[in-house]
Amino acid sequence: MTAKKRVDTAVLDGMDKPAVGPTGRPLRVFPVPERLTGHGPARIIALCNQKGGVGKTTTAINLGASLAHYGRKVLAVDFDPQGALSAGLGVSAHDVTNIYDLLLGTVKDAHDAIQPTSVAGLDVIPANIDLSAAEVHLVNEVAREQILARVLRQVIDEYDVILVDCQPSLGILTVNALTAAHGVLIPLECEFFALRGVALLVETIDKVKDRLNPALKLDGILPTMFDSRTLHSREVLERAVERFEDQVFDTVISRTVKFPDASVAASPILEFAPEHPASMAYLQFARELISRGAVA
């Protein structure tokens, strides 16, 4: 049995009995999706949370790898000056064309910035600290909120999914991502202060939808860094489900040291530890997104 089939079998075998998941809802089995016969146009998903350290970049990396595992062609856009997404995928963001060059128009063709990764079907547009100057340069631009949308329009027909990893703020870069996106994915650390910030983010999403992007949709909230051993994690997850109901995904990403280990190795968890429960969780999440229709 190939490694790919072994991973898929392990995921499904672990969920063949009815049970209640961490969200308090019955666990659902999301089927392994069929391979696509063609690619594009892409659905653009912005991964946003103004609070840092909630697993946003980890989710962008591992969701991208999981969707590629299921035959989707994925472009990850590093939209954070820290460049963590680029580093986590083992892609150099220095001395190469990056998203900053495209935003400023010093490079016109988005294809010049696309870099392959070690994962077949997963490409990335990198970023580095130069991106931190973008807000200053864009402030006087006409239709400055729509610059990323114009950049991604060049490649949207070549991918099935474009994941935009936003910086932890609600500034002009994040507004650009929300204006370009079809959907928003909010990683929510199972911690009280993270939960408080989600309400503010949802308000921002509603404003962008009302003023700039009427098609924008909240795809859902992904609980991350969940620790079933602590009452605090369980209570935060319970409150999130009470407040946002079905907008909270069934999939819950648990806290594990394997994620930072994989980051050091510059590899998605699916490659670093393919049979670890963390890998299974992101494969489950990819299947849930596809089953919900958020991804083709």
Automatic annotation (TrEMBL):
Pfam families: AAA_31. It comes from the Bacteria. Residues 43-217 form the AAA domain. InterPro entries: AAA_dom (IPR025669), DNA_Partitioning_ATPase (IPR050678), P-loop_NTPase (IPR027417). Belongs to the ParA family. PANTHER family: COBYRINIC ACID AC-DIAMIDE SYNTHASE (PTHR13696:SF99), P-LOOP CONTAINING NUCLEOSIDE TRIPHOSPHATE HYDROLASE (PTHR13696). May play a role in septum formation. This is Chromosome partitioning protein. It comes from Marisediminicola antarctica. The lineage of its organism: Bacteria, Bacillati, Actinomycetota, Actinomycetes, Micrococcales.
